[in-house]
Amino acid sequence: MSKPLLEIRGLTRTFGGGRRWFGHDIPGVHAIQGIDLDVAQGETLGIVGESGCGKSSLARLLVGLDTPTAGQILFAGEDLQALRKKDRYALSRRLQYVFQDPLSSLNPRKRIRDILAAPLRHLRGLEGTALDRRLSELMEVVNLRPEFISRYPHEFSGGQAQRIGIARALAAEPKLLVLDEPVSALDVSIQAQVLKLLRRLKDEFDLTYLFISHDLSVVEAISDRIAVMYFGRIIEQAPSRRLFHSPAHPYTRLLLDSAPVPGGPPIRAESGESELPDPLAPPPGCSFAPRCPKAEPDCRQAVPLLDTLGQRGDHRVACHHPIEGPWRRLDTQEVNETANE
Amino acid sequence: MTNFIRLIARNRLAAFGGIMLVLLVLLCLITPWLPLDDPNITSPENRLKPPLSAGHLLGTDALGRDILSRLLWGTRVSLAVGIAASLVAAFFGSLIGIVAGYFGGRTDNTMMRGIDMLMAFPYILLALAIVAVLGPGLMNALYAIAIVNIPFFARNIRGVTVGIAHREFIDAARLSGKGHIRILASEILPNVLPVIVITMSTTVGWMILETAGLSFLGLGAQPPQADLGSMLGEGRRMMLNAPHVAVLPGLVIFLLVMSINLLGDGIRDALDPRLKSGALSRPAPFTHIRRRQVPPENGSAANALLDVQDLHTHFEVGRRTHRAVNGVSFTIRHNECLGLVGESGSGKSVTALSLLGLVASPPGVITEGRIALEGRDLLDLPHRSIRRIRGRNVAYVFQDPLSTLHPLFRVGHQLIEAIQQHQAIPRQEARELAVSLLDQVRIPNAERRADQYPHELSGGMRQRVGIAMALANNPQLIVADEPTTALDVTVQAQILALIQNLRETKGTSVLFITHDFGVVSQVCDRVAVMYAGRIVEIGPTADILDDPRHPYTQRLIDCVPRLGEPNNEPAAIPGLPPAADALPEGCAFADRCDLAEDACLRGDIALRATDSDRQVRCIKPLGLPTRQGVMQ
Amino acid sequence: MIRYTLRRLLMTFPVLLGLSVIVFLIMSLIPGDPAQAILGSYATPENLEQLRADLGLNLPLPQQYLVWLGNILQGDLGRSYTLNRPVLDEVLERFSATLILAGTSLVLCTIVGVTAGIVSAIRQYGWGDRIITLLVLVGISVPAFWLGMLMIMYFSVGLRWFPASGMTAAYGGGGILDVLHHLVLPAIALAVVAAGVIARLTRSNMLEVLRQDYIRTARAKGLGEHRVVLRHAFKVALVNLIPVIGVQAGFVIGGAVYIETVFQWPGIGRMLVNAISTRDLLLVQGGVLVVAAAYVLFNLMADLFQHWLDPRIQA
Questions:
Q1: FRET partner for B224 with CA separation of 20 to 30 A, picked from A128, B455, B457, C275?
Q2: What are residue A315's DSSP bridge partners?
Q3: Quick check: C9 contacting A, CB < 8 Å?
Q4: What is the three-state SS of B136-168?
């Protein structure tokens, strides 16, 4: 196997913490705890998790909007932090970011031309006619009419604004795009348009995607491989089909059981409290153990490490007692499908 | 810019202030060329002449100087000092505010501690201390006033800058390769500038008052130079025998400051985008109703719990009318759950809020329709009766429980309030009931949770409180407006299970508003699909999902990615829904529909029955099951 | 709550310290030689040197500050050379007169401003709102000292309802009723501007709060409009208004300087103005220090009250 494009090693980010003049010392909050992850050239890696699991913090670390507390990010073998010290724009030429809220990521007082020209000018050094030519190319690439370029963001719908956000990310000619919930703020009919565009762009520009979302079905629809995050850690990762076919971590199963599918079988809800652990006082051992129906005493002692499952080596799970066999609701789904045909 | 001037001109008071100010400024500008006496030439023989004396239109002061001339020259000085002081304060204050707000962290802390220190002094006191050091004099008064106003600007501008600095477009600019200076100048400043202008326009008047005050105390302009304040101060000594000497300069200050304030308010209103949308209006307790005719009673729905007929709710903003709900009809039977599905802007929430007059008015108006709850037309009832129905017969559960629960009352208190509004029971009993309600929605430690504030609960817990509050008076109908949209999927599963369970045990009917077909298929018996303010299809959930009749329904279902079917690529719908203030004739979906023909664009297309319990608003409804049909 | 109070109290000390530094710096910035000023222009160089040493003026600035601070902490604010009495005695006496005036004014402007603001918000765009908006505009545009003079001309000289000056009558005065009688005009004149500002901010705050989702929830529960406005909306608006009232307290204390001059009220404002014109700088320094410290304590209480109303506020 060739060397991955992006290698993340032991990445950790702690917020806050420190001493106070009065009262107890403030413990730090671990937003990201020792994440290891590889992304191969040309693949789409989906990252799924619920709010507060650290998926957005991870995204901000990758694109350089935030600095890791510990750990290393290698891009094509080069250390990003070291690279950044040499040239502060080095990251932005390699990795770009697409934001969740398309409208708030565009300055309301700037025309689209100025928004798109900034990366071309500052990261690619384009000026004059070369710049103009590139601008109209970008507009065409994301299916926006050329005359839109002199308009202001508020004149656009959410879907159009998100296309502009994508165009801006592409302007830097990056190798990898970090897409942070790029379709969550959009209506389903628009969501499908943007997903379709993203697929096309990936082929056209030979891009690698890191696609972050809370929506399992969206991630499934676009990803080759999926990593599931819970409480700052990756708890399971596998090729997309395998993950949905036989999820091994109880949390992944819970996510799948909870997601309602149109016309699908009834969802199953947890019986207890589904509270996230207190980030200031994390439980010992597996952070999912307090909610886990299959938790054993050893789960509350040692933090399970991400371990390979099976022979193929592409399915890894952080669980002391991984569940084997196919996921049940997928079964009934398949039965329905065949019944319909 | 012309738009801005037009906005100010439309505001009559602001225009009046503007005109007055322009006149005063013009008068000041041409003063040197006016045939006036020298303001500083004394003539003791002419002292204290009353107004309208020969040669002295406004009389003379104690030294026989012409008051009109002194007033005009004095106004020049006051105006110049006031404007200069606010420019200085605005410049330094804004600079500190922007830098502190943008960089945050230690920079912010250090700068704002300094500002706080300045603000720890009562306003004028600091100015007095500064004048005490620098010595009395007009320029020193100017510095003093400018310095004491710097904190005011710094704080205001910092607050706004912090808000902007955390917006995503700043991150985006950083990723576009812009450095700090570029971001400050080209991203932050243009967004902060309106606030600086607003703050300035509202403080110039104040600064003129303050410099006049220092001069009045004898600490500003020194004789023979005079500004309005020092004239007033001199006049005070002969307040009783020659009142005009003091009254006139005061009057000029008053008019000057008032005209500036009027114009300042106008500028603020014109620059504040919220006012344009009418968003700053206070929503009335009940939506305005303006029905021209009332639809006749519909006999077929006699046994329904709720029967809505031809409901129209419009938003009137300026000259535009946004037809958010445009002829919606549906019924809900006892113990039934009806889903109302649609994309944003389809009018589903407005429909729900219209039922009990909770649409914000202005700008909302119910212009047509009938909303019958067990046969009584709610749009016909007096407000007092509607209020008795709210929360007792019909209760609401809203989307975001953090913003819909009152932040400063304990959750138990909010429940007790809901109970006691409709049931005459003592507080202790109401509290017990409240705790048992929290128990019913499976909140652990209900007794303790009742004493907590909403911000101390998790999102899921808050929504449980919202549901408990809806259940407080055993309503016949619960209107749930996207109750799980703001929640995580595992929490959503629990809330949906809870709603199902309550429906079974309590026999409540539910109107469930959502954009998610997955959720609909979990909880709804029947579903109504909305598009551009109208129901385009209504019928039993399973039938509609398996076999949609309206092309929009079909395509909407097709563009949802389906879990466990990665090969089933979602098919996009091209184009956008029509704007609610420019709805087309005929079918609103026609220009996005690949089956549309000329007839679709003409006349009013009615919602008609296709099967016994299904209705569709389409002239050529789809007849066959087409689940596999992915059309492109 | 107790923890917060303690924290907040502790945080007040650095502010007071910073305050003293500012006052000290301002005073040491004054041009000219204090020794020269005290001894006059005929002093010999030896005498001057001696006095400088006595006053500690030869020490480096930080050391001078510490000496100065030590004196202040022992209650020694120096002697006023114009009045020939300890600064502290004079300042405290004058400050109590100002407290009576400013306190009454603050209560007055808060009650009037908040009530007017609420009425204005409820009757938005109605006649009540228009009249209040107009009055507010007049209130925030009128120079308080001028208004005071007009009031004296009309109510004291013209109608003879209220005395025109002083805090007590020259003969047989000093009772509570007498002080109240003297208080009416200056208190009103001082309250007008602040009342206008408070009314304005109450109105906009109430309008803002009334648009919030939880107000819709309250209405959906079937609550009466009075309860919705006065309990649900006003409680939140009040939390936002407390800092505003804190700032207005500063304006009222500052405005007292003018009003005391106009009405010959024996308060600290008038004392300061006189001290500045006679360049009695020790008196200025003492007055500024005491008033600023009192204002800091007032804001501390406002903060604690706000925290008590709003449990969301963290230290």
A1: C275
A2: A309
A3: no
A4: CCHHHHHHHHHHHHHHHHHHHHHHHHHHHHCCH
Chain pair B-C, CB pairs under 8 angstroms: 228
> Hey, which residues 431-460 in chain B have their CB within 8 Å of chain A?
444, 458-460
* Of the candidates B526, B543, B522, the residue with the CA atom closest to the CA atom of residue B535: B526
B302: tokens are: 């006699």
Question: Across the interface, do A21 and C3 touch by the CB < 8 Å criterion?
Answer: no
Among C4, C5, C7, pick the best mutation site for testing chain A contact (most A Cβ within 10 A). Answer: C7
Residue B567: list chain A partners with CB under 8 A. none
Written as one string, the DSSP assignment of B100-124 is: HHHH-HHHHHHHHHHHHHHHTS-HH
Structural contact between residues B204 and B86, judged by C-beta atoms closer than 8 angstroms: yes
Q: Which chain B residue's Cα is nearest to C278?
A: B132
Asked if the model's pLDDT at residue A330 lies above 60, the reply is: no
For residue B321, CA distances in Å to A218, B262, B271, B288, B561 come to: 36, 31, 23, 15, 35
The mean pLDDT of B486-510, rounded to a whole number, is: 90
Q: Is B504 exposed, middle or buried (0-12, 13-18, 19+ CB in 10 A)?
A: exposed
Q: Would you state the structure tokens that stand for residue B170, as one six-digit string?
A: 């700043």
The domains of chain A, with CATH numbers, are: 1-14+29-223 (3.40.50.300), 247-260+282-341 (no CATH)
A46 bridge partner residues: A211, A226
- How would residue A165 be classed by pLDDT, with cut points 50, 70 and 90? very high
The distance of B55 to chain C (nearest Cα, Å) reads 27
Beta strands in chain C (DSSP E): 79-80, 85-86
Q: Looking at residue B324, what is its pLDDT?
A: 92
Task: Give pLDDT tens digits for B545-563.
Answer: 988 999 999 999 888 888 8
C10/A23 touch (CB, cutoff 8 Å), yes or no: no
Q: Where are the domains of chain B?
A: 2-32+69-271, 408-474
Q: Chain C 10-69, CB below 8 Å of chain A: which residues?
A: 10
**Which tens digits make up the pLDDT trace of C276-295?**
888 777 888 889 888 988 89
**Under 8 Å between Cβ of B51 and B59:** yes
Residues of chain C with CATH 1.10.3720.10: 88-313
User: Which CATH number describes the domain made up of C88-313?
Assistant: 1.10.3720.10
pLDDT exceeds 70 at position C162: yes
> Cα Rg for chain C, rounded, in angstroms?
24
Give me the amino acid identity at C61.
L
Terminal CA-CA length for chain A: 40
The dihedrals phi and psi of B407, each to the nearest 5 degrees, come to -70, -20
Task: Give the model's confidence band at B34: pLDDT under 50 very low, under 70 low, under 90 confident, else very high.
Answer: confident
Strand partners, A47: A212, A227
In the three-class reduction of DSSP (H, G, I as helix; E, B as strand; rest coil), residue A96 is classed as: strand
Residue A37 CA neighbour count, 13 Å, CB half: 29
User: Which fold, B2-32+69-271?
Assistant: MetI-like fold (1.10.3720)
Query: Do A238 and A226 form a contact (C-beta atoms < 8 A)?
Result: yes
Helix-helix angle B411-422:B459-471, to 10 degrees: 10
Q: What is the DSSP string of A270-322?
A: -SS--PPPPTTSPPSS-TTGGG-TT--GGGGTSPPP-EEETTTS-EEE--SS-
* Per-residue pLDDT at A26: 61
Alpha helices (H) along chain A: 55-63, 80-86, 90-94, 112-124, 128-141, 158-171, 188-205, 216-222, 240-245, 250-258, 328-340
pLDDT class of C49 with cuts at 50, 70, 90:
confident
> How big is chain B by its Cα radius of gyration, in Å?
34
For residue B628, pLDDT beyond 60: no
Q: Each residue of C78-97: pLDDT tens digit?
A: 887 778 888 898 999 999 99
